[in-house]
Amino acid sequence: MSTRTANQEMKSLHFNPRKPATTPGDKVVGAVSHSALTIWSLIVILPLLWTFMSSFKTSSEIFASPFALPSQWRFDNYIRAWSEAGIGSYFLNSVIVVGSALVIVMVLGAMCAYVLARYAFPGSKAIYYLMLAGLTFPIFLAMVPLFFILKNIGLLNTLPGLIITYVGFALPFTVFFLFSFFKSLPNEITEAAALDGAGQWRTFFQVMLPMAKPGLASVAIFNFLGLWNQFLIPVAINAAGPRVLSQGLAAFAGQMGYAVDFGALFAAVTVTVVPVLIVYVIFQRQLQGSVSQGTSK
Amino acid sequence: MTEVKTKPRRNDGGLTAVVPDTAPPAVKRRRKPLTFDKVSFFAVFLGLPLAIYVLFVISPFAQAFYYSMTDWTGFSPTQNFTGLENYQRIFTDDIFMKAMGNNILLVIFLPIITIILSLVLATFVTVGGSSKGQIKGLRNSSFYRVVSFFPYTIPAIAIGIMWGQIYDPSGGLLNGILTSMGLEQFKSFAWLGDKNTAMIATMFVIVWGFIGFYMVLFVAGIKGIPAELFEAARIDGAGRFRTAVSITIPLIRDNIQTAYIYMGILALDAFVYMAALNSGGGPDNSTLVMAQQLFFTAFTKGQFGLASAMGVVLAVATLIFSGLVFLVNRLTGGDKDVSL
């Protein structure tokens, strides 16, 4: 930021800001960079476009030629995928589970990170490391006992069970990320709030939480992607329950060996991919920023 | 809970002495009597998240270690303690050892390929611009960044299913492209059905899914380096390659280490991709991974004790891997020359 303004000042000092001459070397590097990045972009986009295109084809069209455009833009693949294959209800379940888990984990995670970052008490370091441990251990190790814990409290194969498990496993990342964020907030503000008579609760919800908004947004985006894409947890502890999208998609693809309906499969994949992709394109600025967001405000 | 709140009074001095730089300045707060405000605040803010975390994350992890030493099948109310017998069974089980070998293969190749490719692309984006005047990146590079990030937003299972179709021997995109280029031998070549190509094809899918994410991460890291450093290097006569090797990479070393650990942990798991591409483990079990074997042992065969032991092996492998990455980074001079 500062370098840019400095440069703009420099430019205004010279009356004639000339464009730096491009050397032949620059052109070569530029061309190589552009072509490498273009090839990579094609590798990313082509499979997606092909999936999208195939979702309008019949199975026989798909096998006749992988490239040909569909003879007509028909939506019955989508209708079959949405209602017959149940992608519609899976989608709804995913929205419910991920939405609730996201709200809960953001609130709980922010509270926990705040206490750990801004209060000193014996054991705070231990709790912090306990959170870190949860980040490093593979989820797989927990699946078998988790299955029986949920079974014992009657939440196995239910959406609430799935929600609370999601909250638990998203918590360490949330706390870990927000910890450094809360730590970086200036101390004077808490003191000012305390002087003005705000209690602990009020300081958190009315002063600290609004200040942490950029950090919260980044964590929320990553948590959303992580939970929306979660596959192992629902497959392990919700195998017989109301399916979420990733689980339903896998089940649908698994049946494909018997009933060949590739058009509907492509439609189901498209339905899964497109909403998140659209949200991403809208919010990509924030997301790109949040990857780089460290302690700088 | 009460214990947590009464202790700071006694231990304040000792605590700051032990961890001076980690205790936030808030430690200096005046000692006020415990009010309802404060008690309820701690109970809810710390107690609630911790309770959920301990019950649903920590306790399953801890229980898994115990179950791994029993012959539990899940249906019997009691289980016998069998010591290390499960571990013996695992390490003499050819299929599990094969799966472990596949995971090791993934751990060796996945992080290095992904990181090198994403570093190269990130370097193109950030230093592809003019070598005169202000240091700047490639023009229109935000388009590449946005597109590269696409795969990260797609659920892994959808990526797996999509590529399963692309690799399809008769109607897939890949063979369609190859045959249209005149390579007739690929007309109905089963990429995932041939034990020589199944693993490579699978690795490609995982790399495809993650290059963009790490590219964005590295671009952010590179942009965080002060422009003066690049200008100084340029004045000293360093070319682009030299700048990338001697300035950029050492300065984003921590990002690279993080990326390496994340990719390695993913490679030790890899369950979703394998389940989507070759749910049965692939030809000759060539893409079978430990996680798949664990899942099968637990939820299909019902041998929960044995499956827990597999989980422990997986966890230990993850810890060893992370430790190794830290150690190598430390030994090769990380942490020291990274100071901004």
TrEMBL record, chain A:
Broad class of the protein's primary localization: membrane
Alphabetized Pfam families for the sequence: BPD_transp_1 (PF00528)
Residues covered by the ABC transmembrane type-1 domain: 91-283
GO cellular component, one term: plasma membrane
Membrane disposition: Multi-pass membrane protein
GO biological process: transmembrane transport
Alphabetical list of InterPro entries matching this protein: MetI-like (IPR000515), MetI-like_sf (IPR035906)
Gene3D superfamilies noted in UniProt: MetI-like
Record field: compositional bias (Polar residues): 1-10
Compartmental location: Cell membrane
UniProt keyword Nucleus present: no
Keyword set includes Acetylation: no
Chain positions covered by the region annotation Disordered: 1-21
PANTHER family: ABC TRANSPORTER PERMEASE PROTEIN MG189-RELATED, ABC TRANSPORTER PERMEASE PROTEIN MG189-RELATED-RELATED
Name of the protein this chain belongs to: Carbohydrate ABC transporter permease
Automatic annotation (TrEMBL), chain B:
Keyword list, A-Z: Cell membrane, Membrane, Transmembrane, Transmembrane helix, Transport
GO cellular component terms attached to this protein's record: plasma membrane
Localization, UniProt: Cell membrane
UniProt key word Membrane: yes
Listed transmembrane segments: 39-62, 104-125, 146-166, 198-220, 259-276, 304-328
PROSITE patterns (UniProt xref): ABC_TM1
Domain ABC transmembrane type-1: start-end pairs: 100-325
A biological process from GO: transmembrane transport
Pfam families: BPD_transp_1 (PF00528)
Membrane topology of the entry: Multi-pass membrane protein
Family: Belongs to the binding-protein-dependent transport system permease family.
Protein name: Sugar ABC transporter permease
